Amino acid sequence: MADHFTSVRPDAPPPARRTIAVGVIRRSGGRTTTLTATQAGATGSIRPAVPQ
Questions:
Q1: Which of 2, 4, 42, 49 could form a disulfide bond with 37, CB atoms 3.0-4.6 angstroms apart?
Q2: What's the angle, vertex CA 11, arms to CA 6 and CA 12, rounded to 5?
Q3: Are 14 and 6 in contact (CB under 8 A)?
Q4: Within the chain, how many helices (H) and strands (E) appear?
Q5: Nearest CA-CA partner of 21 in 38, 5, 33, 4
Q6: pLDDT digit string (tens) for the chain, length 52 residues
Q7: Model pTM score
Q8: Residue 10 and residue 7: Cα distance in Å, rounded?
Q9: Which residues in 5-21 are b (16+ Cβ under 10 Å) and which e?
């Protein structure tokens, strides 16, 4: 098996990272459910639906 990290310098700065997030908004039964998830964790809320 090839070692893919042989050319990486140990004193090199870490690679740039992107923030990746997903989110869902669902409206049903007079409620709005919101969920957001990232690498750091997940958060959500349930609230009365807003008329559209």
A1: 42
A2: 75
A3: no
A4: 0, 3
A5: 38
A6: 455 555 666 777 777 777 788 899 998 889 999 999 988 889 999 999 776 6
A7: 0.51
A8: 9
A9: eeeeeeeeeeeeeeeee
